């Protein structure tokens, strides 16, 4: 073997690097002395002597009892036992260091959280500034969730890269037995990639429904912790983690109310003659309360152009000349309740 050949042979995983392994095998095959090993392996004498020193350190080579001037390699059975025992010892030391490191990490996290929220009740509320803090928190919570994960997913059609990146995590959670329910906007029904992703989620065991609009992005973990976008219009700004039991209970109640009114993907979305779709009804409600087309677009998860088309169609259908008149006519025709809830 020359210096240019691979540095790890079959026994590399046991800590026997080349050329040490080659020298050990040469001795097993009957090589006698340093010069014979050099000739067989085409190695310089210094490399062979270094390898012999390493083999002696590992107790794989010793002086022959028959002749102190000859070298004896222990049998492969005994040699492998020695190497495996050494690996186990190193693994035990490494595990001990890992346990110490994990304990130190836990102490650091606790001390950091206490500094972040001076005077606040432990675990009740935390502000997460920016995407990096949000992603770090999501990684921790996704590891800790044990029973249930509930999600409001506004924004309409989802980004292809985000959907693809989320699939391994979704599979991992569902295989762990975590129950998952996700509510999307009705607008995803017009986007094939998002619909394909939603159907894939259902095939994996997740339950999926849609609604015309959602108030904000929200994730509920095991009914114990909730993460909400700090700004519904710009989720990258930051998020708020809520752990106070009373607040979590209210947010969980909100999710369940929306879930009960949501439609499964298999439910027909075409209205009966003379009726409005759920999306049109929500747009009309927003229109009547003075929301702009841009605001309506965000709530419905559609483009501003689509929102303008929806509102224009509604006003034409109602025969309204203004948004205020559209609201009045919608109430008169029974499309909106007389009193706001």
UniProtKB/TrEMBL annotation:
InterPro entries: Sig_transdc_resp-reg_C-effctor, TrmB-like, Tscrpt_reg_LuxR_C, Tscrpt_reg_TrmB_N, WH-like_DNA-bd_sf. Transmembrane segments: none annotated. It comes from the Bacteria. Residues 269-334 form the HTH luxR-type domain. SUPFAM superfamilies: C-terminal effector domain of the bipartite response regulators (SSF46894). Coiled coil: none annotated. This is Helix-turn-helix domain-containing protein. It comes from Streptomyces desertarenae.
């Amino acid at each position: 073997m020359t210096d240019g050949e691979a540095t790890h042979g079959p026994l590399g995983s046991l800590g026997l690097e080349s050329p040490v392994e080659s020298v050990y095998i040469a001795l097993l095959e009957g090589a006698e002395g340093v010069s014979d090993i050099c000739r067989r392996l085409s190695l310089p004498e210094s490399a062979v002597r270094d390898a012999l020193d390493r083999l002696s350190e590992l107790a794989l080579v010793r002086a022959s009892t028959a002749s102190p001037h000859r070298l004896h390699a222990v049998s492969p059975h005994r040699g492998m036992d020695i190497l495996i025992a050494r690996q186990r010892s190193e693994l035990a030391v490494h595990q001990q260091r890992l346990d110490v490191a994990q304990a130190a990490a836990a102490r650091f996290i606790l001390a950091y959280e206490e500094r972040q929220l001076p005077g606040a009740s432990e675990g009740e509320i935390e502000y997460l500034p920016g995407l990096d803090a949000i992603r770090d928190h999501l990684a921790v919570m996704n590891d800790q969730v044990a029973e249930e994960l509930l999600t409001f997913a506004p924004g309409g059609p989802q980004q292809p890269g985000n959907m693809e990146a989320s699939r391994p995590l979704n599979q991992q959670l569902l295989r762990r037995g975590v129950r998952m329910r996700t509510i999307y906007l009705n607008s995803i029904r017009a986007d094939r990639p998002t619909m394909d992703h939603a159907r894939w989620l259902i095939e994996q065991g997740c339950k999926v429904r849609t609604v015309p609009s959602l108030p904000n992005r929200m994730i509920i973990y095991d009914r114990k912790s909730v993460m909400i976008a700090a700004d519904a219009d710009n989720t990258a700004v930051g998020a708020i983690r809520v752990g106070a039991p009373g607040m979590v209970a209210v947010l969980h109640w909100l999710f369940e109310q929306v879930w009960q009114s949501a439609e499964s993907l298999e439910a027909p979305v075409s209205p009966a003659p003379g009726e409005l779709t759920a999306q049109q009804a929500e747009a009309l409600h927003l229109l009547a309360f003075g929301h702009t087309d841009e605001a309506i677009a965000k709530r419905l998860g559609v483009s501003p152009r689509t929102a303008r088309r929806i509102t224009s169609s509604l006003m034409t259908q109602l025969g309204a000349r203004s948004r205020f008149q559209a609201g009045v006519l919608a109430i008169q025709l029974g499309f909106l309740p007389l009193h706001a809830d």
